[in-house]
Amino acid sequence: MAASQPSVTFDTPKSVKALAAELPSHDNSINPIYTFQETPNIVNDEAISAEDGTLPTIDFSLLISTNPEERSKAIQDLGRACQDWGFFMLINHGVPESLFKAIMDGSAEFFDLPEEEKMQFKGKGILDPINYGSLRVGNVSFWRDFLKVFLHPQFHSINKPPGFSETSFEFGKELRRIVSEILRGISKSLGLEEDYLHKELNLENGQQIMAVNLYPPCPKPELALGLPPHSDYGLLNILITNGIAGLQVKHQGKWVKINPLPNSITVNIGDHIEIVSNGKYKSVMHRAVVNKENTRMSIATGHGPALDAVVSPAAPLLDPVNNPPIYKSLTYREYVELLRYGKLADGDKAFLNQLRI
């Protein structure tokens, strides 16, 4: 990446939660470091305006149905959702609602810990298995605190609050079950063998990273962002929330506000599905906005190949004349390590585009 591009760092002097708590109730100002309006390489849209929209819905029970016609229809719907939106709502997924509540409650307890206790989990880089902090791109900070934990292939967890480790383990296991079946459906929808992605990308040792995000009420939500526009690296990202909206998706050139269905899971494809599909399915830009009244919490769990897996356009999809490869091959580790040099700062999938042949 060019040296002039903004750097990405994961620490600020004080958490956003602590900063928000210190603001007087009558104070409608925020520190200028959280203001994005004069940073056109991060946000090119006017404030945070967006239209209401509805994502495609995929019924997981039909995706794993033993009825061939039901499953075939679900796989076709999945392929269309990946091609048209890059996002979809997953229903009838079988994850107990009680597990969603437990992981949300435990996450809220973590963010309620004293600052000095949370700072024990501060990491230094993108591949640290446990990392607490907030995000800064160049000179702009974002209205979000996060805790990132690697759940697979090696399970890591924090030792507080009580029970969080056990809940995280069960949560990760349930999501891997779902992701495994979705990726079989995506493989099939592309015309590949069902287990193509599992075998080629060594998904038995695939990376699973849970990012717990806290977006406190913001006095000036029109000036700040929770997360800048970005696409997700990896294969699939799974998102659940505490019911407060904030996700916006770029669709057909416009920002769309997403309101999740009760007990649904929001799923989006990542950069590496775009590479494997040779551009047929594209990772999609999205961002997190904040509000003045409510604390928003989300848990985003990214699922990727094994770190040493080489990711390239799927050979069975390629044709020298009609569908030549448009992306170079790169190990997943190389891709992830290069993200620290400013992929989030560009806001236009610049690094993925640099892999174009």
Automatic annotation (TrEMBL):
InterPro entries: DIOX_N, IPNS-like_FE2OG_OXY, IPNS-like_sf, Oxoglu/Fe-dep_dioxygenase_dom, Plant_2OG-oxidoreductases. Residues 205-305 form the Fe2OG dioxygenase domain. One of its GO terms (molecular function) is dioxygenase activity. The keyword Oxidoreductase applies. SUPFAM superfamilies: Clavaminate synthase-like. Belongs to the iron/ascorbate-dependent oxidoreductase family. This is Oxoglutarate/iron-dependent dioxygenase. It comes from Corchorus olitorius.
